[in-house]
Amino acid sequence: MKKTFINFIIAVVMSLSFSITNVFAVDENNPYDFISTQNGIVYELWSDGSFTANSVIDIFSSAKIIKIPNSISYNNKTYEIDAFSFYKDNGKCTKPKSSNTCEKLIMNNVDVFMGISKWNNLKEIHVSKVYTYFGCINNCKKLQKIFISGSKDTDTSTSDISNNKNLRVISYKDIYQIETKAVYNCPKLQSVIFSSNIENIDTKAFSKCKKLSKVIFKNVKKLPYIDENAFKNTKKGIKFVVKNKKVAKQLKKQLVNNKSGVKNANILIGKKVVYQNING
Length: 280
What we know:
The protein is mainly beta. It has 2 domains: 1-28; 31-278, Leucine-rich repeat, LRR (right-handed beta-alpha superhelix) (Alpha-Beta Horseshoe), CATH 3.80.10. 15% of the residues lie in helices and 39% in strands. It has 2 helices and 21 strands.
């Protein structure tokens, strides 16, 4: 009886030991989902051997200028950070702890950047090498400047920059598409700059940006397709600045034929006006 009991205990211990070993082996060799906090930034890291989807999920740094790094080290491994997203499936944005202190947000080399809402002191956003999408930047009452660049190798799009009451300038570089209502109801927006590789400016892209008075196509050799009402409800007499006479001619044709929504627009090469009083 005693021998039988002892054998039973040994069997149970061995079974538990085997199970525990397997659990730890899975956790160690296949760390599918874990959290790392570094320099006031919280990351969710995913790695199952076939893909990564490593995201910023919280920021509690009190710094006025916050730069999200390209990668972080964890347990002697390096993980690229490929997503900044505080946008949830229910259409609402969560707010990190730093949203009331951050004045300037910087990030380079990211797949998706989205979900900034009601960051009360944010004044500038600088994001470069976005591979897929930039957007959902809403209701930031002090936001004045957005600088966003995509990748020449991918079709980066941007949309839903809305209700930012003090936004003054947006600069795009290597952005493939400005989606429908991409910049909506930003009443103090004055200037938009496009640098190279812009393909489409969709319907009502800059709707209700009533003070938009200058659009610069910087180093743009081929004009993007400008959809109907892309510049509806912008300032009368808006100035479009282009690279050369060829682009100016293309632009005039599109503004008129595509019913862009402009009123008494002027097209300039540098400071020289080449076409005046265009309605479209």
